[in-house]
Amino acid sequence: MPRFAPLPERRPAIVAGASAGIGEATAIELASRGFPVALGARRVEKLEDIVGKINAEGGEAVGFHLDVTDPSSVKSFVAQAQDALGEIEVMVAGAGDTYFGKLADISTDEFDSQLQIHLVGANRLATAVLPGMLERQRGDLIFVGSEVALRQRPHMGAYGAAKAALVAMVNNLQMELEGTGVRASIVHPGPTKTSMGWSLPADLIGPALEDWAKWGQARHDYFLRAADLARAITFVAETPRGGYIANMELQPEAPLTSAPKERQQLKLDEEKLS
């Protein structure tokens, strides 16, 4: 007899921050794998296009306004998602932005805004779906962390503090949910090419890049794509019962130092000289 009943075929999922970047890619990837998906974001007009694309390609998706810093918005979003798709089996908390600036230069309110989005907002979303998951004794809480939570970067102190606190919260959830059937996971993206942060003016990004290089945090100029993270998050959601992914970190692979043909030619040249 199996230790756990298998996951149901229909697993409705909610994705916060689904109007762009990793959230958008995750919603599309989940839908392509058969998950009914409710997309949530502040930019509802962006959601309409993504939902239309998913449904046109044979997936099942709906989109609703969501502001994770607003308790009533979170409750409304989860209620609408459940009414449209059924009880939520998978939560992906990926809403957020990043704030560039040295800690000495930003205000406490600006610092707090990062905590509200990345930590309190993620907690608010999780607590909205947890009661149903606990009652059914299954469910996946998947949080989008950051490599900055593991290795802090200058100019990203507020963001890094919020993501580091998120790690602590997820670790506690993993301990407190043990034996309930509900799984909590965190996926840490390395440098990823999305609009988040990279639309900032050069006078903010330039000094940050210089300091990252000084601290050995700019080893190469390759970036992950949002789709890379979407596949990782979907992998976590699809993990069969009996095990769970506690922590996952995804980093961009560095460019090859030389192409295969170049290496082959170099070897031939060396043989001629010997």
Number of strands: 7
In percent, how much strand structure appears in the residues? 5-15%
Sheet with the most strands, sense and barrel status: 7 strands, parallel
Supply the number of helical segments: 9
State the secondary-structure class. Answer: alpha/beta
Helix content range? 40-55%
Average pLDDT over all residues: 89
CA radius of gyration is 21 Å
Can you write the helix and strand succession as a string?
EHEHEHEHEHHEHHEH
Instruction: State the shape.
Output: globular
Low-confidence stretches: none
Taking the alpha carbons of the first and last residues, their distance comes to 67 Å
Strand order of the largest sheet: 3-2-1-4-5-6-7
Question: What are the SSEs and their pairings?
Answer:
Blueprint: E1 13-16, H1 21-32, E2 37-41, H2 44-56, E3 61-65, H3 71-85, E4 90-93, H4 108-136, E5 139-144, H5 147-150, H6 157-176, E6 182-189, H7 202-214, H8 226-238, E7 247-250, H9 260-273
Parallel strand pairs: 1-2, 1-4, 2-3, 4-5, 5-6, 6-7
Structural summary, described in words:
- With 274 residues, the chain is α/β, with parallel strands linked by helices.
- The chain has nine helices and seven strands, in the order βαβαβαβαβααβααβα.
- It has helices at residues 21-32, 44-56, 71-85, 108-136, 147-150, 157-176, 202-214, 226-238, 260-273; strands at residues 13-16, 37-41, 61-65, 90-93, 139-144, 182-189, 247-250.
- Helix 2 (44-56) links the parallel strand 2 (37-41) and strand 3 (61-65).
- It is globular and about 55 Å long.
